[in-house]
Amino acid sequence: MSLDHFDRRIIAALQEDARMTVAQIAERVSLSATPVSRRLKKLEEDGVIAGYSPRLDARKLGFPLDAYITINLQAHSDEIIDRFENEIKGNPYVIACHAVTGEMDYLLHVLARDIEHLSQITLKTLVRIPGVRDVKSIVVLEDIKKSPAIPVQ
């Protein structure tokens, strides 16, 4: 898909504040409201804009502990992979799960209330998923950069 200068500026504006009105976006990108509205509709239809949601502060919602967990499976059979992925999809504390290359099979992003809660998530759920061989945790000490924005240059 090819995005022109105006599409990119519209996307950048929405990434700053998805609650902007069409009129506000139009003013920001130097177009009138009608073409901005048409472009937004096209970006949504094409799946470039997949939805609108608020950015929440996990700390203020009671989840100050941010961790990454790597998982290695015992084997790569369809049954083990399907069981693992279904368990992860059902775990509300796992906010992202990626199948990765390298020494580990999966990288999980987990939110927890505290270290004891992370321990429960790890020892009571993740290591007990049939087919899981290795689990390693990395606790985030400080966010240096945390941006939900995707580069649109």
Task: Compile the SSE list and pairings.
Blueprint: H1 5-16, H2 22-29, H3 33-45, E1 65-73, H4 78-89, E2 94-99, E3 106-112, H5 115-126, E4 132-139
- DSSP summary: helix tally: 5
The count of domains is 2
According to CATH, the homologous superfamily of the largest domain is: Lrp/AsnC effector binding domain/regulation of amino acid metabolism (RAM) domain
Give a count of the beta strands, DSSP E runs of length 2 or more.
4
CATH architecture of the largest domain: 2-Layer Sandwich
Query: Which fold name corresponds to the CATH topology of the largest domain?
Result: Alpha-Beta Plaits
| Whole-number mean pLDDT | 96
Q: Which structural class fits the helix and strand makeup?
A: alpha+beta
Quaternary state reads single chain
Query: What's the CATH C level of the largest domain?
Result: Alpha Beta
Strand arrangement, largest sheet?
2-3-1-4
Gap between N and C termini, in Å? 14 Å
Beta content: 15-25%
Helix amount: 25-40%
Domain HTH asnC-type: 3-64
Keywords: DNA-binding, Transcription, Transcription regulation
Protein name: Lrp/AsnC family transcriptional regulator
GO biological process, one term: regulation of DNA-templated transcription
Structural descriptors:
alpha+beta, Alpha-Beta Plaits, 153 residues
